[in-house]
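Lest this sound abstract, we let one protein speak, letters for residues, whole numbers for local backbone shapes, and leave readers to judge:
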Amino acid sequence: SDNVKITGPGADKLSFDAGLRSRIFNVPTIVEQNQEFDLTVGISGLTLKNGKASQGDGGAINNAGRLTLTGVNITGGKTTNEGGGVFNRGTLTVENSTISGSKAIFGGAIANSGRLFVNASTIEDNGAEFQGGGIHNFGQGQATVSNSTFARNTVGPDLPFDVVNAGKGGGIDNEAGAVTVINSTFVENNA
């Protein structure tokens, strides 16, 4: 299995717009001669817009391999399941990136059941119907967030504010697994 590297000129210079018709990237686990290998992918310097998973997880990206996003903007991702921006069950590193305006049932920006590292990134204006407006961590998920900002992420359908248990974790919801947050800012997240 070969590794894949996609390098753009900058998130403000190159964008891929799926027009809410399909997911943009799928990073699988590769099976060769009855052995599984994680595909290693690096994506940098581009914007991913309006990815949509009508069935399954991960509006813009579904990751089961080893994925590193550097200087990437993901915006407007949507799924009827988990991970409006990204669904991760492999290893995902998000560095100097922004995930915004993405929506899902669980994990507006990111749904994680694998290993997740978010550093020097912004998770803003995402929404989930039930859990994790920004990040939903579940299963065996291990998430580490550092030097990042979570702003205006929300949980809950359009319900009045007096509804009890409308949702959990405007910024981050840890259903199971472990989450570590270091030197990060949370502003106006709501559940």
